[in-house]
Amino acid sequence: MNTFSIAIHGGAGTLVKGMMTPELEAKYKAALKDALEAGYYLLENGGTAVDAVEKAVTVLEDSPLFNAGKGSVFTAKESHEMDACIMDGKTLNAGAVSLITGIKNPISLAKDVMEKSEHVFLAGDGALRFAEELNYKLEDASYFYDEFRHNQWLEIKDTDSFQLDHAKKKDSKFGTVGAVACDQEGNIAAATSTGGMTNKKWGRVGDSPMVGAGNYANNKTCAISCTGSGEFFIRGVVAYDVACLMEHKKMSLEDASNEVINKRILEIGGDGGLIAVDTNGNIAMPFNTEGMYRASKSSMGTEVVSIYK
To answer: Domains in the chain, ordered, with CATH?
Structure first.
């Protein structure tokens, strides 16, 4: 039987250490562990990598601690615009949604785009019409309301500032959630979901829903979920860049991930991190920020739940 494993993240560029209380740190770690165990349970019982990453991400979306689903940040119009992407490394099938509102679990809608439509990427009203056809329940805006997120928005509303989530330095937190997994058959998958930037305007879309930028999976190489300064991750085609280094330069998962996060993305001015897995169940979780909410578990017996370096 193949080594099976899962890694998850809840965003790079965490709360700066001075703002993190022991109680809050315990809450974050408990939420990460819940998501990790939910995904791992499926893998342990013969589930597919695709189902495992979807499950782990829905648990993170349901937590108000992370900027995805329930914890999504507010846009300039005091609304929520969420993005998500999922990809199957065995088939290279993928599904993505962007600029959606009212959907409790955007990752599940992305999976339905992959499995129940002829398309890869649906956005805005069209994505919501697709959801309605599948009888998705639209949540009221109050479901997504979080006082902490709303206060963040109030600080910068009616300005041209935007904020990548919740540290003192206005652009130093990238709240995305994601999961990558390798199942017992040696197939891999990646899933990523985000609420985007506080006070974002004009329908801004980051790297999270873009295949190859923020999310990618290919059994030939690796599965990747990114979290970081989205504009730079799009320009650097970061998720595919790791896979490309593995395929064409024959680099290991660890070396390729480090090359991209600790060298290539820094060279163009971006920062953040990623989680990665290959078909042997190896895991890499590099980041170049103060921290990254992250966790991983493998059938080899290793388990990690961490925030800071």
So the answer is: 5-308 (3.60.20.30)
